[in-house]
Amino acid sequence: MTTPIAPDVISLRGITKAFPGVVANDHISLDIVSGQVHCLLGENGAGKSTLISILAGMQQPDSGTIAINGVPAAINSPKVAVDYGIGVVHQHSTLVPAFTVLENLMLGESGLMLEKKRAVERLDELAELLGAQIDPNVLASDLGLGQQQQVEIAKAIWKGSRLLILDEPTSMLTPQAIEHLAESVDRVKRQGLAVVFITHKLREAYSMGDCVTVLRGGRNVGHISVEELASYDEQQAQDAILSAMFGEDIATVGADAAELAGATAATREIQAIDLDRRAVRLSLAGVSSRGNSRDVEVSDVTLELHEGEILGIAGIDGHGQGALAEVVAGQRTAHAGRVNFDGEDVTRLGVRRRQQLGIRYVTDDRLHEGTIGSMSVALNLVVKRIGQRPFWRFGQIQRKAVDAEAAAQIAKYEIRTPSPATRAGTLSGGNIQKILLARELTNGAQLVVVNKPTYGLDLKTVHLVREILIDFAAKGGSVLLLSTDLDELVELSHRIEIVSSGRIVGSVANDGPGTAEKVGQYMTGAIEGVH
Amino acid sequence: MGAEHQRGRKALDEVVRSVLPVVLALVVAGLIILAMGSNPLDFFAGVWTYGVTGSNWQRSLVLMAPLLIVAVGLIVAFRGQLWNLGYNGQYLLGAVVASGFGPYLFDAMPVWLATIVIFLGSLLVGAIWSLVPSILKARYGTNEIITSLVMSFIGIGVANLLIKGPFKDTTTPQPQTAVIGDENLLAYIPGTSIHVGLIIALVLAVVAQFVFSRTSFGLRMDIFGASPKAARHVGINSTWMVILLFALSSGLIAFAGAVDVLGQYSYQRANWNPHYGDAVMPFVFLARLSPIAAIPLVGFYAVLATGGTLAAQQAGLNVDFLLVIVGLILIFMTITEYVGERRRLGQSYLPPGLRRTLARPFQTGAARKES
To answer: What does the record list as coiled-coil region(s) (chain A) (predicted)?
Structure first.
């Protein structure tokens, strides 16, 4: 790879892309310069993903141009993007788990014969560049998450890259792994590559970026140039970014703005409670699960959840959180151990019986599991009470009762929908999440399991969802909060347990600064330590 | 008013999407007939003459009875997103229950009781025959399209073996079952020569529509069809749902076979297979899996098939030409759906790649002008 004398510039001019009902990118212009880390900041739905999929050739803009060093470049397929040297590391792993590292890296090879020897050399070169040790013959599924990401980066710049795009690379990483990543990004940058770093956390933008562009509602609402960012102190930079990120909304979100934007380290927001004086609502004793699916099962999990308590479960995504939630909700059977609810053994009860007892579950798969997209909002709101009065009498649906219930919930939870008869799948993610919360928290809810409750939501809804959960706990409800967002866990939980490979590997009381680091240590020790 | 207007447009859109493919298929079929040197107008006039006029409409309605029951059976499975393609085997096994046991049962007990025993027997045989694909599907996630299809081939073979073996009428050299006497067949609707199977079919369609749209079971079924994950989430036992829907579907299709034998054929020949399921399949989708909406569409096909058989012969075409029309309907249905869906989403009708290629010559021209 040669370092160019004059810096490469990729300039985007007036990029516009509309989808039915939403303008994802509205005349976005920005310059990406080699040797710089360009941070793209914005909440969910701000248009970051659309912009990078346009750069990666996966979407075509409706209008606007992309030029590389002044020469117009029509990036109309991912292959063209690769030929231009644009590599993307997606938020979720794109490695084939059953292939080795080397095979994964060679997926894009176009030659007739596989040139393994040259590939190994190239991998050595890149490993040195990234400052990472990568064994070419290990299966991708055996890698830790931090290592997987290093391989993804190597894959993205495999063909001598010009631009490396990292899409929310820190969302799955422990604090320790984020530091490693920052080092690698720095080395890549010094090699003369341009880096686009996408995040919704302000402090990452500040610490890793050379310049920052803020997107909101599909528009470029603020750019802080290299010189400006260098001249600002931390507080000035924060203020500048915050006002761009929130615009007029900053008044409604108020003092929480900085926290929502991840500007500062998270602190606990919930009132302390005396656990000894609260009755135990849910207890799991040596629970192991078994299901038909291939995801990680829980094994030998023991935990207690009290009245009015929010118990956080931290862990890397896919380490048994889904199984834990389902075992409590009754969707998955426990083949060993006992699940007690208010002193009663509910191990053998199914979803509907537990639902009636007050055990509720807000799933992380809002679109396919939590709601039925093709059905109306009204039906989705009563779908857990099928066949029950007053919505069904003698097996027949009572549309008036359903509509009345729907109207009440839509008003209470401020679900923005054209009408109760609108198909749920057409609503925004935030409003779908409100449907789930409305359905699960009403009609005698005692305990709610929430899995990644704010994942993919816009900041205002994130704020609202957290308020709803805090409020629910303050009124005596119990919350089992499963999340991959450490900041969220620290803000909401009284205690945090750490899950890894389906087992609880540690427990941290959330009673002061340093909780996130302690949790991170458990996660690192349990996951990276294996390899 | 806006909402009303929109609903009106949506309803119109659905009617257009159901009828347009049939019209287009008939037009293209006409062109094919023309290309083969016959007069398409003669053919369509023949369909009308032999399918509707005189007392021919009654023959069409007799054919409609089993077709409609098969359609309802398919809809039950399809609404749950279970692709029961084993209809031919299921139909023939149900028919064999009637044609094979019928002669013995009618000798042994009153007609009404024997009829009920045959109907229940065919339902049961169909349901049991579906257990292999449905249990495999529920337990191991095996693709039911393949398993039900394979079971269908086996079912057809078993039906033929039974007709040639234990159920064979020994008084004739033909491999066929004994003829059931006219007095034991299903009664006619007074004043016509249409057997009451048609009424059974219509009632079934109406009841099914009610169950699907008004009851908690119908909603559970639709949730299961829309997303098995969501079904599990709301506490629906998906294992039972798969087995139950498959059993209902298969049972109903077998029941159609029994109705057809007791209503019309009175005996069954080996290697006979009317392929009702294949013919009814596109209409089930055109009806958007609604049993009531399927009634006129199936009725249309019954006329086309009844009149078309004779009309095709007269026009010098093979009877298989009817299947060509059915195939054309399927093709145009797919195209209409695709275009309609793009239009609903406000997208262009052309796939993006093709659009760009088509637009390119104009774009470069424009760019040149600009610079």
So the answer is: none
Q: What's the whole-number mean pLDDT along residues A19-46? A: 85
From B154's Cα to the closest Cα of chain A, the distance in A is 30
Under CATH, to which class is B18-346 assigned?
mainly alpha
pLDDT tens for each residue of B189-242: 998 889 999 999 999 999 999 999 999 999 999 999 998 889 999 999 889 999
CA distance A15 to A24: 10
Beta-bridge partners for A395? none
B100 neighbors B167 (Cβ within 8 angstroms): yes
d(CA A105, CA A123): 8
pLDDT tens profile B23-34: 999 999 999 989
Q: Which of A352, A369, A373 sits opposite B235 (nearest CB)?
A: A352
Domain residue spans in chain B?
Answer: 18-346
CA A424 to chain CA centroid, Å, is 22
Cα–Cα dist B278/B253, whole Å:
12
Reported residue count of chain B is: 371
The CA-atom distances, in angstroms, between B212 and each of A422, B216, B254 are 20, 8, 21
Contact by Cβ (8 Å): A14, A65:
yes
Residues A219-231, mean pLDDT to the nearest whole number: 84
Residue in chain B lying closest to A76 (CA): B353
Close Cβ partners of B43 (under 8 Å, ≥ 6 residues apart): B30, B33, B308, B311, B312, B314, B315, B317
Q: How far is CA A196 from the centre of its chain?
A: 19
**Looking at the DSSP assignment, which residues form a beta bridge with residue A194?**
A163
pLDDT at B318: 82
pLDDT, tens digit, 9 for 90 and up, residues B53-87: 988 999 999 999 999 999 999 999 999 999 999 99
Cβ proximity of A164 and A194 under 8 Å:
yes
Would the CATH topology of A9-260 be identical to that of A275-358+444-530?
A: yes
What is the pTM assigned to this prediction? 0.79
Between A and B, how many CB-CB pairs are < 8 A?
Answer: 67
Picking from B250, B277, B263, B264, the residue whose alpha carbon sits closest to that of residue B125 is B250
Alpha-carbon gap, residue A53 to A47, rounded angstroms:
10
Fold classification of A275-358+444-530 is Rossmann fold (3.40.50)
Q: Would you tell me how many other CB atoms lie within 10 Å of the CB of residue A4?
A: 12
Euclidean distance between CA atoms B144 and B249, whole angstroms: 13
pLDDT in tens, A339-377: 999 989 999 999 999 999 999 999 988 888 999 988 999
Interchain CB distance below 8 Å, A375 and B222: yes
* Contacts of the segment B201-205: beta carbons below 8 A, 24+ positions apart: B201/B64, B201/B65, B201/B66, B201/B68, B201/B69, B201/B72, B201/B256, B201/B259, B202/B68, B202/B295, B204/B68, B204/B69, B204/B72, B204/B252, B204/B291, B205/B68, B205/B71, B205/B72, B205/B291, B205/B292, B205/B294, B205/B295
- What architecture is domain A9-260? 3-Layer(aba) Sandwich (3.40)
Asked if A350 lies within 8 A of B352 by C-beta distance, the reply is no
User: A292 vs chain B: nearest CA distance in angstroms?
Assistant: 8
Which of B137, B213, B219, B345 would you mutate first to test chain A, the one with the most A CBs within 10 A? B219
Q: What's the complex ipTM? A: 0.78
Distance CA A326, CA A482 (A): 12
Domain residue spans of chain A: 9-260, 275-358+444-530, 372-440
Would you call B277 exposed, middle or buried from its count of C-beta atoms within 10 A (0-12, 13-18, 19+)? Answer: buried
Write the pLDDT tens digit of every residue in A203-216.
788 888 888 898 88
C-beta atoms of B230 and A350 within 8 A = no
State the pLDDT confidence band at A525, using cuts at 50, 70 and 90.
low
Structure tokens at B54: 């005189």
Q: Are A432 and A370 in contact (CB under 8 A)?
A: yes
Q: Which residue of A has its CA nearest to B357?
A: A76
